[in-house]
Structure to design on (284 residues):
């Protein structure tokens, strides 16, 4: 049971970072469907930098920079130019899906996986420790700081925030950039913690599962964290079940467990009332 718990915690790590990135965005009043793209950028830049430099610190830093740059573009298109969050997020995802193979071809003469990073260079427990720290930091920030109050108000009542003389656009821009930063850490965790390289579309839909965890966690940091652990548990469970000869069901049925759970969560909580009020005003 202890092994299953630690496996769940490890597998939930990228998901927690992605879900917290979604929390930072949506509590500020912006739907973020581009989490998948942010995860992939972080994973690719992190793995590529680690292979070329042999430094996990540089890999983490460059992946963070890539996440912030991409989220700055995302924020500029949505907040400054008033683009549709849904359309812009779709465009960001498609851009990432095409740009990574192009860059990989230039760097490594391959549109597939990046070269494998030696086992001794892989990240150990740092991402798990950091995800707990980031969850705590976001909780304390939102609950006990004035900036955190501005952040939450931007998602609940933008008019009230403007009436108080606080810029809604600036608040959203900053938190979208922070979301890109945190999401990129989830990508690095994928390629250098759970794996030893980047492989095409290795996020496996985690950006969208993170949104389900966000809904299940009612946009509250620790509940979101717990929701991600639940999804991590189901992923660890399906991996464990694949190795049991006693399970007489098709392998594919076992592998889809996390995705079935995602669909069930979205159905069960489709009418819940915890979402930031500004999200209901989003149009496509």
């Amino acid at each position: 049971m202890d092994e299953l718990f630690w496996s769940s915690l490890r597998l939930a790590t990228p998901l927690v970072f992605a879900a917290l990135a979604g929390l930072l965005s949506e509590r500020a009043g912006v739907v973020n469907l581009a989490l998948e793209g942010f995860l992939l950028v972080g994973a690719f830049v992190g793995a590529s930098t680690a292979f070329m430099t042999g430094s996990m610190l540089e890999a983490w830093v460059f992946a963070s920079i890539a996440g912030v740059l991409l989220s700055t573009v995302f924020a500029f298109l949505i907040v400054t130019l008033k683009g549709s969050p849904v359309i812009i997020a779709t465009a960001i995802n498609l851009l990432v899906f095409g740009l990574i193979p192009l860059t990989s071809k230039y760097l490594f003469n391959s549109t597939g996986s990046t070269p494998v990073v030696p086992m001794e260079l892989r990240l150990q427990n740092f991402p798990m420790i950091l995800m707990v720290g980031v969850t705590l930091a976001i909780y304390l920030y939102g609950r006990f700081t004035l900036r955190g109050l501005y952040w939450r108000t931007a998602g609940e009542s933008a008019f009230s925030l403007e009436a108080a003389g606080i810029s809604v656009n600036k608040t959203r821009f900053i938190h979208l950039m922070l979301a890109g930063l945190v999401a990129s850490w989830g990508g690095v965790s994928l390629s250098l913690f759970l794996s030893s390289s980047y492989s095409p579309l290795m996020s496996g839909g985690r950006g969208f599962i993170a949104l389900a965890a966000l809904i299940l966690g009612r946009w509250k940091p620790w509940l979101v964290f717990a929701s991600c652990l639940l999804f991590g548990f189901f992923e660890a469970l399906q991996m464990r079940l694949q190795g049991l000869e006693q399970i007489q069901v098709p392998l594919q049925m076992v592998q889809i467990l996390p995705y079935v759970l995602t669909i069930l969560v979205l159905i069960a909580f489709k009418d819940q009332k915890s979402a930031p009020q500004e999200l209901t005003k989003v149009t496509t």
The mean pLDDT is 89.
